[in-house]
Amino acid sequence: MISPRHTRAAGRPPRVVVVSPPFHSHAQPLSVLAGAMEKAGARVHFASAPSFAPMAAGVGVGFEPLTVTRNANTGVARSTRQGAREAERLEEFLGSTRKGAVAALLAQARHRGEDLLSDPERVMAELRALHERLAPDWYVVDQLSYPVTLALHCLGLPFATFCPGHPTYVPHRSDAFFGVPYAWPRAVRPAAGALAELRRAARANDVAFTERFAEVARAHDAPVDPPGRAFALTSRRAVVFNYPRFPWLPEHASTGAEFLYGGHCVPAVEPDPGEEWGAVVRRLRSAGRRVVLIALGTFLSARSDVLDLLVRGVLSGVPDAAVVVAAGDSAPALARLSGPRVHVARVVPQRWLLRRVDVMVHHGGNNSFTECVASGTPALVLPFSSDQFSIAHDAERARLATCLDPSRLDPGEVGRAVRELLSRPPGGMSRWTGELRDLGPDWIAGRLLRAMGRRDDVGEPLSSRAGG
User: Fold this and answer.
1) Half-sphere exposure of residue 72, counting CA atoms within 13 Å on the CB side?
2) Gene3D superfamilies recorded for this chain (predicted)?
3) Which CA distances in Å does 381 have to 45, 181, 317, 330, 425?
4) In this structure, are 243 and 339 located in the same domain?
5) 445 lies in which domain range?
6) Domain total for the chain?
7) pLDDT per residue over 180-212, tens digit each?
8) Separation between Cα atoms, residue 402 and residue 383, nearest integer Å
């Protein structure tokens, strides 16, 4: 255990390190939160893979290089430089998404150990060195960075947990398993046998991760309580959910932590991407009365077949619509679709565009979902994997989106779904968008600084509680 300072010097701003895995979709909201905490008075360093240093500079915080997993995605997964085994797993995962929901989730279950708990000893050594260098008062760690959470637990260092996905990524009861959706959208209903197979795989991962956590803790003679159930190990001080607090979400068992539902991590002001994108939007508006944004995230943009089908479905089903497509490495293959009503780009300024389009088609990723809610943009959701099924269920139940099964898709139903979304009255969107108006990164930063500062203020040793 690293010896703590029992109290912070009077009047000194707290020093905080925000740790992100090397995934663009995680680093983006965490960097926004880091900037908000700096603005709120903390002194913040953002720790991630070196390629994410510009994110730290963009929000005005310090940067520390720290790579917590060999797997990586700096913005477009397929073109990110990574090891042969990581690239092989990515291709296997993409292939599984063609076979439906359970096949994709089972592929992720098979990859979980390599993806989420690679080289915990190295991560612990690097965190120890970082702590000796910066001496932060506490950390914010991405919940899916399990080696970091385990290291902070074993070292007795205080931390807050940031959940980048659906709140049930943190298992809420003993029979809930990481990797099994808590609920399914109407369009995706796996057979009972397939669900039973998925639950068996998830339960086996739960046992294996917990045993591995205990093994690492024993090897380092960690003077703290055993980690317990690995996937449920979070801060006992504060857990931030980058998600709205829908009334039907399951309650988490009390651990003494303050659960903060921040709604979203969208900055109040989005930087202007430049005249080129302004010209794109004007051109599309002149060709079509409505504009639809299609973006399947940094991994699933590799599904060029689905992107092609979506463009054709929107153009044929909504004659007055134009389309922007975030195509990643599929952009060259889809360039033939470009024309007066279609703009294909490798990457797009998504948050900026959401204020300027009428509908978004996305994969149910947490960032896309929360950004749509914050901007009041209705969505067509096509969940492929991970927590996307749970998010699609919530979006559908809140009448924020329509969901279709991407493994059984045809252009006609895409066109019908987008037409229906365009005809909806805005009331459903405005209700939830209004509820999020006072939340977001600045709200999270203020509440998090208070929650993490309270024990320090009363003189409690900063590492006196295992798990943060």
Assistant:
1) 18
2) Glycogen Phosphorylase B
3) 35, 16, 17, 20, 18
4) no
5) 15-265+440-457
6) 2
7) 999 999 999 999 999 999 999 999 999 998 988
8) 11
